[in-house]
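Lesson 9: reading folded outputs for more than one chain in a single document. The general rule is that every protein is listed as its sequence immediately followed by its structure tokens, and records are never interleaved. Here is the first one.
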Amino acid sequence: MLKDPDLHWESGVYPYDALKEAAITPASSMRAVQDASYAMIEQGAWTAENRKAWDELRIVSQRLWVDFFLYPLTVDDILDALERLKHHVDAGSHETTNAPDTPDEDAAHLILKQITFDR
């Protein structure tokens, strides 16, 4: 799952980013999210910002809102997108900052914003 790289989270840090020290990901169970507070306290990472992020994930309706901004991409999707991107660059078009022309290019542009691509 990838977060939209242009997402501005109103309350500060995106909740999954804030709780990554407690190994909380979109695949984490609700029980794991509930228990994350203990892990954060043990690690000395229980800050006001992390508490707010935890609150945003521990309530199902709020977690669904947080998850709405994630893109479900598989490893195959990512490899395909990178191959299309490589082909695009090898073909001589270096205009990768423009919006995608087709829906097939969406994943490639999303990944391009997340990684460094060596030319």
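And here is the second record, again sequence then tokens.
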Amino acid sequence: MNIIELYQLFRASSGVNTDTRSLRPGQLFFALKGENFDGNAYAMAALDAGAAYAVVNEYVVEEDPRLIKVPDTLAALKDLAAWHREHVLGERRLPVIGLTGTNGKTTTKELIREVLSTRHRVTATEGNLNNDIGVPLSLLSITPETEIAVIEMGANHPDDIGKLVQVSRPDYGLITNVGKAHLLGFGSFDGVKRAKGQLYDYLAAHGGKAFVNAADPVLVEMASQRGLETLPYGAVQEVLPTTSETPFLRLCIDGMLVETHLVGAYNAANVLAAIAIGQAFGVSLAEAVGAITAYVPANNRSQMVRTERNVLIEDAYNANPSSMAAALDNFTTLHDSHKVVMLGDMRELGVDSVWEHMQVVRRLDGCGLSQAFLVGDEFRKAVANVGCRPYVRLFATSDQLAAWLAGNPLEGATILVKGSRGIRMEKVLPAL
């Protein structure tokens, strides 16, 4: 079956799915295969559950006219997504904004969605479906009514972005920032720059444009090296001070006060990016500010939550050296007499891991903390190297910290909770 025939089946279907647990009648089921799973084993179950067709690998022995056999189901999914991206509006080209970066991708994507939605019908990546499966699924959720698509792209390996742009084919791009993350996969900070820079590479080769933070010398240099046409943003703004009573980011842009529900001055660049993209697509500053003011983050990203006993700054979805430093620097500026941090290990840092965790421990000394709770083996090694601080307690797992907090409750504290996804720092939240 060629791509045109497959696309006709897709257009007649109710969408695509890769998981039988969420399958809806009339969908196309793609049987994806990974290291620890093989969706081909569930193809017949998908058909029994109402799938219109199941796209499976050629080695599947069952015979059914609703089975579409291909050499590689993931490749077929990507091909279908790329074809849809190009043909969903017929002869008109859909503007696609590609988004990547070390920190702030999902928050920035949500801000861009909110801003653009004041004037346009927008399709954007849901949650953080930003990998080689999530990006095709995001593209396939675009409808003929979509006027702009915002596609988030993540990377753990050197060629990830290069592969994803071949599917999403963006006309515009944004790299939020470039920092230290996934060093185990990228090898070095220069490796991170090369990997993220593949978005700029694609745009430069295909006549695209990049929104570039003019206040970020790394991004400016990366764009300049490629001769890329840029749409700069990052005008000077005033970031207002915060306290535990007014912890949210507030900033002034062109004389207009922007009051957000985001915690952390590092989100100022994300706000500026969303406003710049909105203005490029006809959204006024007032409309953009209104959308940003109304946006409330979720999923443990830059959230502030008041419990019966404490004020929590929940940033527990992920962590790397860059985002950890930014979070701690912001926490340092918070004026409060009882500040506490609960930090989990930063994963995938390779040979630099212990040294990077040592840097975090040293940074704690200047944060004005009452207590610090550190979770994970990497922090244990770091403390062993730099020496234990009297305000530091170590725990092997977030479960152990949660159990300790249940027996030793904290009250009246402002608490930053942050760590890599695998540490599951959200487990401590119910005890706070």
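What the second record shows: The chain has a mean pLDDT of 91.
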